[in-house]
Structure of Diguanylate cyclase:
Amino acid sequence: MLSRSRGERAMETESEPYVRLATLRQLHKVVTDLNTARSLADTLQTVADGIVAGLGYELACVNLVRPDGDLVVAAFAGSAAAEALITGRVGSRTSWDRRLSMGEAWGELRFIPHTEGWVLIEDDVPQWHTDGPEPRFEDEWHPQDRLYAPMYASGGGRELLGVISVDRPRNGRRPGPWGQEALQMYASQAAIAISNARLRANMQRALVRLEREQQALRASEESFRQAFEYAPSGMAIAEMGGDQHGRLLRTNDALCRLLGRPASAMRRYSFADLVHPEDVGTLLRTSAEGGRAEIRLGRRDGSYVWVSLRNSVVADTADGPRFLLTHVEDIEDRKRHELQLAHRASHDALTGLPNSAELRARLSSRLCERPHAAYATDIEALDAAYETDRGFRSDGFDFDTIGGRPYDHHVHTVAPDSEIDDGAKGLAVLFCDLDGFKSINDRFGHQTGDAVLVEVARRLTTGVRDGDTVARLGGDEFVVLADGLGAADAADLAVRLRNAIILPIRVGGRGVRVGASFGIGWASCGMSVEEVLQSADQRMYIEKRSRSKVHRRAG
């Protein structure tokens, strides 16, 4: 069996941050879709569709645990023929337990290679068979490979809700660590969505009974009370209208435990009193009927926890809507995981610095396509505005103009004159290339080289101000973004950073040295990100050639 070439693996590694970012965005979209389904059946189909649409598999099947413990094929995506063949068929729990104990454990996932899966062909689990050529590479997907993602209910009991089966990765290879983690995270979110769909169904049935069965009001209230009190997620009932609008009337034990506050104390608050200051606007924009929001609520100890709020109106037949029913779900773990994934997708794994994609994003946010106005200062731009007629809209209200153009409130980035230091400030782009780093790698190995890169990253970060950006482009190239500098300031910064880098670095009991060449470029509106980086790169090579090899060589 063949293995992929070093060049193929290198190309794959270079594009990995972009693949991760694209995967994260697609994963976020399909996870969001899980919470929009209205019924349990819609949720199950959305789970299957999300695998095919967002995770790179051609076929996906959702097997749901029935009350008797067996698993039924509840949803299928990717093949109408296979869907017609196995949807609704049942596999015994014994056979499923056997499958989930075989093969290789990839975290929560279970992978059964074709070399072991042949013994499962005759068991009673519904399955489909795909044809295809024998794999040519060691990590290529075999038509008889099996990959399962169990879905467990929230809490410590690890109650099995169902199993997601996937087949035929679009890239033709077994998923790597990133793909495995994405599938495992999706299965976790799918389990939450299925549990919530069941909870919503129970709550909706309780509300329908409250509206349609006035004569059985007491029985309906008791049913609602039990669903409310014993719900695994937080629940709250709040006042609607009047002077006490939003005040919490009743909270269940799950919400009190989540926020660390007794029920008696909760009745003194509204969610507006508990929300994080930065999330007040989000809460206020959330509608009463069907509104949902992800915000942070304050705990008794002063910390905050991420929650998902979902509102429903409990109507009274006599007076109209009276109470607001809010479902509060703890999403702290998901938010933390999303932040970790986002950080890993935008930062260099070795040094922890922003990577090339993140650097370009930060630089792009400071640039616009229109070159800076031909006014030397903001005062001159304002003076020019008063020398022209003010603009008026068709409704009679005026809008701001500068120099006859509508003012877009964008603060333009301007490059100071590199020839004359007239005090002008701009966004300096320092392109750093290490001198002598290759010889260290060749003499002492990549482990020593990695340690040097980590130390250089630390020294660069220590040598800049808070708010400046130090990023690793790749290899031994780094870029520093420093705003508010003049030409002399940028030159002084380059000297300080070079002097910090050339000091000996202790690795494995030996001292090694690297040199550094810096090129100073300037970001300016009207330039593209690539033009800005290329300008700094060219200046770096000019500076490198202008110094003798003796001064550039590592010590």
Remarks:
- The chain is about 40% helix and 25% strand.
- The two ends are 45 Å apart (CA to CA).
- The CA atoms of residues 125 and 240 lie 51 Å apart.
- Confidence is low (pLDDT under 50) at residues 5-14, 381-407, 550-555.
